[in-house]
Amino acid sequence: MTADSELRAEIVRVGKLMHQFELVDGASGNISARLDSNRLLATPSGLAKGFLSPEQLIVVDMEGELIPPAPPGLKPTSELLMHLEAYKQRPDVNGVVHAHPITAVALSIVGIPLTDCVIPESVMLFGAIPTTPYANPSSAENQRAISELVKTHDAIVLAYHGSLTVGPTVWEAYLRLESLEHTAKIIAQARVLGTVKPLPPEQVAKIISTRQQWGFARATDAEEFCKYCGVCHASGQHRDEEALIRAVAEEVKNKLQVSNFQSQTSNSQT
Ligand SMILES: [Zn+2]
After folding, report:
1. Are residues 75 and 133 in the same domain?
2. How far apart are the CA of 179 and the centre of ligand 1, in A?
3. Of 73, 204, 248, 258, which is most buried by a Cβ count within 10 Å?
4. What's CA 111's distance to the chain center, in Å?
C-alpha cells in the first residue's frame, strides 16, 4: 500500500465509524488528512460518510482548489474552509474531522458549556473544550470562529452545528471526536440525574500536573483552568501571594523585635 492508499483507507474507516456511532447524519460531516505540505486528501461534498469508497476521495491544495484527476461530479465540500484554517494554524495537525455529534450540539443549543472540570480524563486530554459563538455553517464566519481557538484546542464545539477535532493523524482526530461526544454525554446524563459537582480545585491541580508531564499543556491552560475550574496557581498569582505573605511576616517580626528592644531599654532605664 502507498501512503496515499493507506490514508484513503483510513479516511473511509473513520467515515464508517462516524456513521455507525451517529456522529453524522445524511451526507453531513467531513474528513481530511495531509498528504504532504501542499496537498490534502478530503471527503467530497454530498456523499454519505459511512458509505465512501477510497477512490471517491479528492485531493485539494492548501487553498482548497481541486487537484485533478478527480472522480467525475465530485467537488470539495463548502466546509473545507474550517479544515484549511486548522492546517494553517497548526503545523502539527495532519488530520481534521468535522461531525455533528448529537449530545455536544444539544448542549450548545441549551447553553451548557464543556469547559467545567468534571471528568478527569477529559480535563487531562483536552483541558477546556470551548464552544464557538454561532456561525453560519460553510461560511467564512465559521472559519473565523475556530481560527483562534484551534491554535490551543484539539476539540471545539461549533454552537448549534457540530464539532471540529484535530490530531497528528486523522485517526487521532477521530478518537478526539469520540472523546468529545463521550464527555458531552456524561455531562448531559449527570444533569438529568442531579446537580453537577465539579472536581475540587486541589484534585484538578493534580490532573493539570499530569497534563503538563504528558506534554498536553497549552498556552491558554493557566487562564482557562483559573476561569473555569478555580485553579489559579499556574498563573503565578499564588506564588506572588506567598511572597507577599512572607514579606509582611518578616516586616511584622522586625517591628516586634524593635518594640521588644525599646520596651527592654525603657524598662532598664526606670
Ligand atoms: Zn457541518
Report:
1. yes
2. 18
3. 204
4. 18
